[in-house]
Structure to design on (280 residues):
């Protein structure tokens, strides 16, 4: 089964917000993304990647001053297969993120689901996130 | 370490949205809810609770017509201790949710920039509990 492995928060001051969650919950800093889409801090609780980001474009259509939880990410086995499935269910493809450059491994494809809720799907895990569990057959070997 | 175990989405039509995520990712419906705060569904990927809810009050100050990601939840060992720590760091206590919460008591806080989150010491339905500490596991 695919796994929720990423949550992104839109922040005005990602450094201050990241400090709060590091101190409050002992989340570990695992990266400092500085890309085309956003700058900020990646934290991890050992299972999920929590991205605290200052976005550079209005991906949600809620304005550049939107603050709050922005999108989530789902780790899947095969991005191509899931893309087809999502489109057949009515999701709207937003953008692809390539394999090269600083963003590699953070996400692969962004979709808008029902009510324009934005999410990513990736088959290469976000920094500090747990991989997909091994299939039962493989784990039993 | 505390663990992110809950993500809540504000939806106008939780029925349709829940159906989408069940079909898209095989997330399992673990319960339907219709409490004082919200109507909707709790789905699970086996680790995290994905709540798809039509809220009955404006918890974010963005209006009742707001749709999108709403709040997240963190599973902690001790809610009382976590609450004290959060207040010490400038977190603002919003409300407690007690007897009517399936699974037990949780506390809602606003963190920096008004971001809302819950802390709970009883796992959300269908989610993984906190990992056993290494020292305890070795016994």
């Amino acid at each position: 089964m695919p796994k929720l492995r990423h949550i992104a928060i839109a922040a005005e001051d990602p450094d201050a917000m990241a400090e709060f969650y590091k101190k409050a919950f002992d989340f570990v800093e695992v990266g400092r993304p500085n890309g085309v889409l956003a700058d900020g801090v990646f934290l991890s609780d050992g299972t999920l990647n929590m991205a605290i980001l200052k976005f550079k474009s209005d991906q949600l259509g809620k304005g550049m001053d939107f603050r709050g939880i922005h999108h989530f990410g789902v780790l899947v086995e095969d991005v191509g297969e899931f893309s087809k499935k999502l489109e057949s269910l009515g999701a709207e493809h937003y953008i692809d993120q390539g394999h090269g450059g600083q963003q590699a491994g953070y996400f692969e494809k962004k979709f808008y689901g029902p009510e324009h809720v934005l999410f990513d799907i990736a088959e290469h895990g976000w920094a500090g996130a747990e991989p997909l569990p091994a299939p039962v057959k493989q784990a039993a070997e | 370490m505390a663990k992110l175990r809950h993500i809540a989405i504000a939806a106008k039509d939780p029925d349709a949205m829940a159906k989408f995520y069940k079909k898209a990712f095989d997330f399992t419906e673990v319960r339907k809810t219709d409490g004082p705060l919200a109507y909707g569904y709790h789905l699970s990927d086996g680790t995290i609770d994905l709540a798809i809810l039509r809220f009955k009050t404006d918890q974010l100050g963005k209006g009742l017509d707001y749709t999108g990601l709403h709040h997240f939840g963190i599973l902690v060992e001790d809610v009382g201790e976590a609450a004290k720590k959060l207040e010490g760091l400038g977190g603002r206590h919003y409300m407690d949710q007690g007897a009517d919460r399936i699974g037990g008591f949780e506390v809602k806080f606003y963190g920096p920039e008004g971001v809302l989150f819950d802390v709970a010491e009883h796992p959300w339905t269908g989610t993984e509990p906190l990992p056993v500490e290494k020292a305890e596991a070795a016994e």
